[in-house]
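User: Okay, second chain of the day. Same drill as before: sequence in, structure tokens out.
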Amino acid sequence: MPTQIITTDDLREFKIELLEEIKKLLVKTTSTGVKKYLKSNEIMELLKISPGTLQTLRINGTLPYTKIGGIIFYDSEEIEKVMKENSIHNKF
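Assistant: Same drill. Structure tokens below.
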């Protein structure tokens, strides 16, 4: 088996490639084009609601969430599900 020398440039290139792949996994989108997990500020922007309204929706159980180390995450699929379940169709 021939020996291959790895240079610091090779390692740097590998690092860049690896970081790009990790970024792709972290920003993996669903079919709607929205990230899988959203933070509070992203939800407020998406739903056009205030921080107080978002807190109320969390407290009363309307919006499911996960809290990890002080950061609250919302599953975009769950948010979409809540929106569909609460849609109102007026029949004329």
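Helices lie at 8-26, 40-47, 51-59, 76-85.

User: Thanks, on to the next one.
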